[in-house]
């Protein structure tokens, strides 16, 4: 997930994920459902930063990673 997000977030990709985990109250190893919640939160964050088209692309890519 971090590497997929790096083009948009740069070195802050890992921190962006950690911030969303914290915001959602996810601690320890996230479950698959936790990861889906994190991806939803990241989509909202990307939408605010880069717009709907980019956030949708990030969302689809992250969901594909989760489903693999």
Key phrases:
68 residues; mainly alpha
List the helices and strands and how they pair.
Elements: H1 2-9, H2 13-24, H3 32-50, H4 52-67
Give structural notes.
It is built from 4 helices and no strands. It has helices spanning 2-9, 13-24, 32-50, 52-67. The chain has one domain. With 68 residues, the protein is an all-alpha fold. The longest helix has 19 residues, at 32-50.
Radius of gyration: 11 Å
Task: Briefly note the structural class of the backbone.
Answer: mainly alpha
Q: Round the mean pLDDT to the nearest integer and report it.
A: 93
Beta-strand proportion: under 5%
Largest sheet: none
Q: State the end-to-end CA separation.
A: 12 Å
Integer count of domains: 1
* Element-by-element helix/strand order: HHHH
Poorly predicted residue ranges: none
- How many strands appear in the DSSP assignment? 0
Write down the overall geometry: globular
Total of helices: 4
Quaternary structure: single chain
């Amino acid at each position: 997930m971090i590497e997929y997000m790096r083009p948009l977030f740069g070195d802050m990709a890992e921190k962006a994920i950690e911030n969303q985990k914290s915001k959602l109250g996810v601690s320890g190893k996230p479950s698959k459902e936790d990861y889906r919640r994190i991806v939803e939160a990241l989509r909202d964050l990307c939408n605010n930063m880069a717009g709907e088209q980019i956030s949708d692309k990030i969302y689809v890519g992250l969901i594909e990673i989760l489903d693999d």
